[in-house]
Write a structure and sequence with these properties.
Layout (H helix, E strand, L loop, with lengths): L1 H13 L4 H11 L6 H12 L4 H21 L3 H19 L6 H10 L12 H6 L1
């Protein structure tokens, strides 16, 4: 699981659409049983709470993605929220919920294409404050 995640993160760093957009788009598109990382994640999720090694691995996977997002987002809270958004998109897609192009298009509209230096607070978060 950690090797698959590390390889995916290395690809995200060079993805043409940028790491943030790659993370969010792949949260939806990777949720199919043909993807080895998805199969490993689903197996690990089924074991959560029963095996401490699995729990620790999934925590590490989550932290690896959060660390990547933090490389591209200056605000730590915004990086965390983008990570949680990806987790939610992945969960919905894994459950078979059609996340839909309209939702993904709306999400992508607020996530910049820039490779580095997203600064300030994520626009939707500013509206909450």
């Amino acid at each position: 699981m950690l090797r698959l995640t590390a390889a995916d993160i290395e690809y995200a760093r060079t993805a043409p659409e940028g790491a943030l957009r790659y993370y969010l788009f792949s949260s939806v598109s990777d949720a199919n049983m043909d993807n080895p990382a998805h199969r490993a994640a689903m197996a690990a999720l089924r074991l959560l709470g029963t095996e401490s090694r699995v729990n620790q691995t999934m925590i590490k996977v989550s932290r690896m993605w959060t660390e990547l997002l933090a490389e591209y987002v200056d605000d730590p809270l915004t990086a965390e929220v983008i990570g949680l958004l990806g987790d939610g998109l992945y969960l919905r897609a894994s459950l078979g919920d059609e996340v839909g192009e309209a939702l993904l298009r709306r999400v992508m509209a607020v996530v910049p294409r820039d490779r580095r230096g997203v600064s300030g607070t994520f626009a939707p978060l500013r509206e909450l404050g």
